Amino acid sequence: MNNQITMKLNADHLILQALAEDITSEDITTNAVMRTYCKGEVELICKQDGIIAGMEVFKRVFELLDESTEVEMYCSDGDEVQYGQLLALVRGDIRVLLSGERVALNYLQRMSGIATYTHSVAALLNGTKTKLLDTRKTTPNMRIFEKYAVKVGGGYNHRYNLSDGILLKDNHIGAAGGVKEAVEMAKEYAPFVRKIEVEVETLEMVKEAVEAGADIIMLDNMSPEEMKEAIRIIDGRAQTECSGNVTKENIARLTDIGVDYISSGALTHSAPILDISLKHLHAVDRI
User: Fold this and answer.
1) Residues 88 and 214 in one domain
2) Of 146, 197, 199, 241, which residue is the catalytic one?
3) Sheet arrangement for strand 166-168
4) Is 146 a catalytic residue?
């Protein structure tokens, strides 16, 4: 998402949908107070310490409304930002600045909030071999933005969508008739380059998954003691992941277990936004 081609291919249609949601026929308030073109400038101000993410998306909102809009950035995605910091100046048709403000800020605040929260959780895993993963628990039509923000914050992406990887969860296992049967079916159906991950809830299921040849075993909602025993059973024969209501407040109990990955839906579904505002809009010249 750091170049124009990627943005056009993957994000433009989503941004346009967001703009269309906000402007069905016209921005009646802006049109009431600004009847003709007037060039203006507005400041992007940080109102909370955090990690910034989504600057190119923020910029793209205004460009899609008017390609002549100029955004002068003073920070880049991944930077630590502080309260009161000037992040960018936006120049262009005042009507565009007003009409695009909310959508642009919604993206930037949401993405920066996810990056900030992810950064704080990932820091708790420093010094361990364990990597922090996101999940598919994302806002509809926001996945590309939210998963990108996780990476900016220092986390890693799990599969992007249902076409991206095989994850046999409890209901898949139930439909197949058991762990062994589910893994066998997956191996028969899927290309050999695909890894097969199995979600397990008991130590007996752990043993079945290992014997069936699963590549990754997800330990779901197990106690720390059960997870340690599961790691002993697996004994390096598969990669390991633990999941189940993992948050910043409780991840410390998992750091010494020795799993390869910890996945947390909270990174995307529970991160608060980062407070950022567009302020001090003023005309710079009139024609």
Assistant:
1) no
2) 199
3) 131-133, 261-263, 239-243, 216-220, 196-200, 166-168
4) no
- Same-domain status, 38 and 149: no
Residues 6+ apart with CB under 8 A from 264: 121, 132, 133, 134, 135, 243, 246, 247, 251
pLDDT of residue 287: 46
Mean pLDDT of each 10-residue bin along the chain, 287 residues long: 71 97 96 95 98 97 98 98 98 98 98 98 95 97 97 97 95 97 95 91 97 97 95 97 93 92 97 98 79
Q: Which residues pair with 102 in a beta bridge?
A: none
Which two structure tokens, joined as six digits, stand for 41?
A: 């400038």
What's the pTM?
A: 0.94
Question: Known catalytic residue: 137?
Answer: yes
Given the residues 102, 136, 207, 237, select the one marked as catalytic.
102
pLDDT at 97: 98
- Candidate list 77, 146, 220, 241, residue with the active-site label: 220
- 220 is a catalytic site residue: yes
- H or E stretch at 127: none
pLDDT for 9: 87
CATH code of residue 109: 3.90.1170.20
Residue 278's domain comprises 4-119+272-285
In this prediction, residue 192 carries a pLDDT of 82
279 is catalytic: no
Of the residues 169, 187, 194, 195, only one is catalytic, namely 169
Q: Are residues 193 and 219 in the same domain?
A: yes
Sign of CA dihedral 10, 11, 13, 17: positive
Instruction: Determine which one of 137, 180, 194, 207 is catalytic.
Output: 137
CB 75 within 8 A of CB 274: no
- Could you tell me the two tokens for 284? 């710079």
Q: How many domains does the chain have?
A: 2
